[in-house]
Amino acid sequence: DAGVIQSPRHEVTEMGQEVTLRCKPISGHNSLFWYRQTMMRGLELLIYFNNNVPIDDSGMPEDRFSAKMPNASFSTLKIQPSEPRDSAVYFCASSLRTVGGTQYFGPGTRLLVL
Amino acid sequence: AQSVTQPDIHITVSEGASLELRCNYSYGATPYLFWYVQSPGQGLQLLLKYFSGDTLVQGIKGFEAEFKRSQSSFNLRKPSVHWSDAAEYFCAVGALDFGNEKLTFGTGTRLTIIP
Fold it and tell me: Residue A109: which pLDDT band, with cuts at 50, 70 and 90?
C-alpha cells in the first residue's frame, strides 16, 4: 500500500496568500484526521472526518481555516488568508473506524508563511 | 477529558544501553494507548499499541511497552538501543469508544544516542 499521501511536502508563501494542503488517505480507510505540529503547541488535532463527514472540528483555530473531504480518497485543508503564525508542519492521518483502530500518518507538509 | 504526560523532554543514552521512556495518562475509562516514533522530517510511525489482553505488548524495532492500570502508565522500553533509534517518541491515548476516534498526544520525548 502507498500509505497516506500528502502534497505539497513543502510550501513557502507570503502572508495573506491562500494555501491549500492535500491528502489522499489509505484506500479502504474511512476516517481522516488533520493535525498541526509546532514546537510551542506540539501535535494538535484540527479536524476529523468519518465517511467524508466532518465529525469534530473543535480544533480548527479560526475561520481562516477550512477543510473538505469531497470523496473517500481526497481531502483538503485550506488557509485563507495565511499568517506567519500558521507556519507549522501539517499532518494528515487515516484509519479504519474500528475499536482500537490505528491512525496512519502521512509525511506531512511543512508550511512557512513569510 | 483524556490527557498524556511525558515527563522527559529529552533523554540521552549510549548505544547498546537499555532505554525506558515514561508515559502517564489520564482517562476515566479503559483507554487504548499508542507509542509512535517520528524521525526528523518524517511523519509519525506506529511502534505499538495496547487496547486489551496481555499488558506487555511487543512492537516493531525491538520495542515493548507495559500497561500498568494502577499507575496509569504505559512506559516504552528497549533492552539495547541502536543509533538509528534516535528520534522523537510520542505516547497517545484514545477512548475505547467506537464513537470517539480522537487521540490525545503527549508532548514527546527526544532521544539522542551517543556512541
Answer: very high
pLDDT in tens, B41-50: 889 999 999 9
Cell numbers representing residue A87 in the block: 507556519
pLDDT digits (tens, 9 = 90+) for A10-50: 999 999 999 999 999 999 999 999 999 998 889 999 999 99
Q: Which residues of B are less than 8 Å from A97 in CB distance?
A: 98, 101
**CB half-sphere exposure, A19, CA atoms < 13 A:** 29
**3-state SS class at B91:** strand
Ranges assigned E (strand) in chain B = 3-5, 10-14, 19-21, 24-26, 31-38, 44-50, 56-58, 64-68, 73-78, 87-95, 103-105, 109-114
Chain A contacts to B (CB-CB under 8 A): 4, 31, 33, 42-43, 45, 48, 50, 55-56, 91, 93, 95, 97-108
- Chain A partners within 8 Å of B108 (Cβ): 42-43
Return the H-helix or E-strand segment holding A91.
Answer: strand A88-95
Contact (CB, 8 A) for B1 and B59: no
